[in-house]
Amino acid sequence: MTLRELAIRYGFLVLLFGLIAYFAVSADGFASPQSAVFIFQSVAITGILALGVTATLVVGGFDLSIGSVATSAMMAAAYVMVVLEQNAVVAVAACLLIGVIVGLINGFLIVYMRVPDLLATLGMMFLLVGLQRIPTEGRSIATGMTMPDGSVATGKFSANFLALGRHRFDFFIDNLLPASVVVLLVLALLIWFFLEYTRFGRMMYAVGSNPRAAELAGAPVKAYKIWAYVISGVFASIGGILLAARLGRGDIASGNNLLLDSVAAALIGFAVLGASKPNAFGTAIGALFVGVLLQGLTMMNAPYYTQDFVKGAVLVVALVFTFALSHRGKA
Amino acid sequence: MVENAVFRVEGLRKSFGRIEVLGGVSLDLHAGEVTVLMGANGAGKSTLVKVISGVYARGGGAMKLGGKDFAPATPAEAMRAGVVTVHQNINDGVVADLDVATNLTLDRLSGSGAPAFFNPRRVRREAKIVADRMGLAIDLKSRINDLSLADRQMVAIARAMAHEPKVLILDEPTSSLSSAEASRLFALIDRLRAHGVAILYISHRMSDIRRLADRIVSMRDGKISGVFEEKPLDYEGAVNAMLGRRIHLDRIVVNEAAKTVLAVDGLRIAEGARTISLTLGAGEVVAITGLVGVGKTALAETLFGARASLAGTMALNGRPYAPVTPGDAIAAGVFLVAKDRGENGIVQDFNIYENISLPFLKRLSGLGVLNRGVERATARRQIGELGIVCRTERDEMGTLSGGNQQKVMVARWMSQPANLFILDEPFQGVDISARRDIAAKLRASSGGRATLIFVTELDEALETADRVLVMSEHTIVGEHRNADIDMDRLLAEVAGQPLRGAA
Question: Which segments cross the bilayer (chain A) (predicted)?
Fold first, then answer.
């Protein structure tokens, strides 16, 4: 293996470990289980969204609506519990349903209406950003809020639902592992196994690389594409559930960075292990990378506004790794 | 004749790497004459056109325009010198989002001396002059997007003619036109011929060629294989020169078919075409030959469920067979090695074994989970069977030569037993030894299934098949047992001659 191949394959992992080592030495308290868990928790929601968008990247598409699906799910969960006074199960079911429906509509627009993926999901993004504010006329949802008709919403977030965002499992140390991190790890394992080890995942990669060849190999190409958007929508809605559970209210101002952070994680994932293609493991590492970087910078008292700059720089470097250094990027 | 040649090409050579595509081509074009250039895929026609039009630099030889040396470095230079090319893809010749007037004067928007500001009124005035000269009856304000293919073609040609060229090259201009649209194009070509333009017309369509040709030049394997200019033109001779009739080294032993595998009855694959009926038997290899554009791929895709037929029924092993998708066909044991492997076959991001297992993932997995061990074992077996040159079954496709890539495509579909095995142009872009390997493998493994190959090159059909069927105008016009073939009759059928005794 030449130096160049080694750089392509392991460069990003080396960078990640180097970063961790650097912060461990120079930032007090970085190298502790609590700090590690905090990093995981901070990337849980963007990581889940990134895993979903990875599915659409695999079939050669893109989903810009994930951020707004997540915030729509968050608002829906709050609305169901606070205004409609339903329990946690109904709230979760409503969120997942939103994810499925949005995914189906995205898929339908792209596959049957032939709208380019970026435009279809961009349109869906604007639509959802507006839609989620209509029921409350633009107000955030919390217990005791005044509804447009003057009544007061008396429902509240169920304890079970809040546990999704706040409960911590014991893991060697008491109250260490947050539920959201467990959800992230489970979903990451699921989608990784699905993409790498099942025939459906393999066919999705074939669809993304050469749809005509996949079709002539007997694959229902349109169905695979639509499924990818449904996966993306459902993952985004799960992210929205966790967001609602963490905040305990339907906050119209939250979730602004979700889309860009998760897309960055998925694209950084291209560079991990020299894959040069969307992949679940890389996406997870990509999310972790961003998390480590931000946590480290925060602990070193870097001003908040440098964070976006650093994220952007990392993304650009990762894309250079993918497209300039690898041969396959040229094809 | 030779004296008044407007454009001359002498001993033109061009190689890509070690592969020589043009091996010394000489060609004359005369003012006021339509010279038709015929040649099978890969004969070097497109390369010749690209060298003449300045897209490629020539490797050797000379070109003369009106007695002076002609060596364009760019397409624009060739155009300014008076050699204008209308390429096969119509949309390359026009800008779809602009209106007709802007398209007609597009070439004046750039280059030195072009005004910096866009003046719609001047553009329209200049466009009107161009359109009138060409007898173009299209609203100059309509957008190209809203025009039919034929109208776009007219605009592309008119735009080319705005340079008042001495030489006009048309590369398969009718390949996407209906016959009514084509006749408008022919009228235009007649007018240009009368104006004294030397025209090089590249086509496979015999009806076009009969309508237009003053001379025919046949090309084969990068060389001119025949020039026909005595009236009446010898069309059969031209087809023969283009397809070649070399003595084949390994004369095959013709198999007789056992029981019927596929029975096709009254199948119609194009509007207005005559229907197709044929039967294929177990153990026989049948080749369907015919010029480009006679519906070979359409028939292959119809049998494979990738295209809907207009009428007719099919039966496979006695049971009705009506595939709606390729998935149906694969489930029924009907496999297709599609033509243009880069476009229709290879998944570039996949390695060899992933490419081979692609259509059969369902069979190679349990509960949806892939069994990589079986996939790789299957691939290793197929690599051995077909003699694919590679390091391991995990090699990337990009590292393989064209011939080996094609072997992987054949290996893919031979990794599982088939009832009907269809190959569309399996020898395209394949070197001679890979071609021999594939043909030998096809014949050796043909027992128990019906094998159907679609080829343009006659040699390939004669080297591999037990029976040869001839297609013309989207139907089958002839059938030959591959022993003591009446070559004259076969060539006449390929050239689309009215059949003796047929209505």
Answer: 6-25, 37-58, 64-82, 89-112, 118-135, 176-195, 226-245, 257-274, 280-297, 309-326
